Amino acid sequence: MKNIRQVEPYVPGEQPKDTDVIKLNTNENPYPPSPKVVNKKLDLEKLRIYSDPEVTKLVNALARYHGLSDDQVFVGVGSDDVLAMSFMTFFNSDKPILFPDITYSFYDVWAELFRIPYETKALNDDFEIVPEDYFGENGGVVFPNPNAPTCVYMPLDNVKRILDNNRDVVVIVDEAYVDYAEESALSLLEEYDNLLIVRTFSKSRSMAGMRIGYAMGNPELIHALNNVKFSFNSYTMNYLSIELGVCSVEDDEYFKAMIEKVKNTREWFTNELTRLGFTYPKTSTNFVFATHERISAKELFEAAKKEKIYLRYFNKPRIDNYLRITIGTDDQMKKLISFFEKKLK
Ligand code: PMP
């Protein structure tokens, strides 16, 4: 058949059908969403009408939460949707966009899909982004901070240097994991009109299945994003997502408590990994990127799966001896440590 678009899709982490697995492969939160979300009574008769195309309630809740105005916030169907829209909206140049060689593996897929030229810049040997690599002429810049799957955080001073050297193009900072990290780039928003910050409800807000993501930037960028969205699909956000998203934002106490819980487990777990001879970059996320010199990551990944413990393994240059391990509950991490102990005996 003629004229069929051939693309190589992004491959998400496995979602096993079995329910009795320890699932540490897609960076979900091991704790449920806020009780305000779980116990919310919704008027499902409202599904009869279209949802609010402007997503007013959720945009407003997020704007208030972050101390912004409504015209600085854009909401979409998970940050994947927001990022894809952002690629379409802001990366329109013959010059290549720039992102790290080891990073979220959706970036090159979108670049290919939207026919955006791109160039990757190598992380250094400590898996850090080298800011100077992003100073040359380009069509835009995108990176996660903290980066994934490496879990490494780039201090804001360096983010600032990248923004300073790219005043005429959009720099997207994907903050999917920032709630587990040192500092958000949000404080730079006022100073930099070329900064777009993208966040998700999938990790720290325990709502991966609800599909909510959002972007924050100056009103001109947000307006441009909305124009692209309304050229595509007016009703991306359904009624349930809007209502339950607001409930999550309104329960800050629970949100912060769950982040602390994951961070405490992370502290215990990383110490245990060290005791067992693993090495890993300092993690600023709800996952660890670990390697062991005596046993290959692939072997560990496959053996763990047989024991119904799902981890993430990337068969890619530079990282094919690393495992990405999501922080689960204390009990799940204890079981994983026992498994490692047995394997390393
Ligand atoms: N950015 C990064 C760096 C991620 O790891 C993920 C999770 N796969 C996303 C964005 C997308 O998350 P979601 O679409 O669930 O908001």
Keywords:
single chain; about 350 residues; five-stranded mixed sheet; 10 helices; 13 strands; globular; binds 4'-deoxy-4'-aminopyridoxal-5'-phosphate
Descriptive report:
With 345 residues, the protein is of the alpha/beta class. 34% of the residues lie in helices and 14% in strands. It contains 10 helices and 13 strands. The chain has a 5-stranded mixed β-sheet with strand order 2-8-7-6-5, with helices on both faces. β9 and β10 form a beta hairpin. α3 packs across α6. It is globular, with a radius of gyration of 20 Å. The mean pLDDT is 97. The structure holds 4'-deoxy-4'-aminopyridoxal-5'-phosphate.
Q: From the alpha-carbon coordinates, what is the Rg to the nearest angstrom?
A: 20 Å
Can you list the ligands bound to this structure? Answer: 4'-deoxy-4'-aminopyridoxal-5'-phosphate
Count the strands?
Answer: 13
End-to-end distance, in Å? 56 Å
Shape descriptor reads globular
Run of helices and strands: EHHEHEHEEHEEEHHHEEHEEEH
Strand order of the largest sheet: 2-8-7-6-5
Into which percentage range does the β-strand content fall?
Answer: 5-15%
The share of residues in helices is: 25-40%
Largest sheet: 5 strands, mixed
Catalogue the unreliable spans: none
> Could you report the average pLDDT, rounded to the nearest whole number?
97
Q: How many helical elements?
A: 10
Structural class: alpha/beta
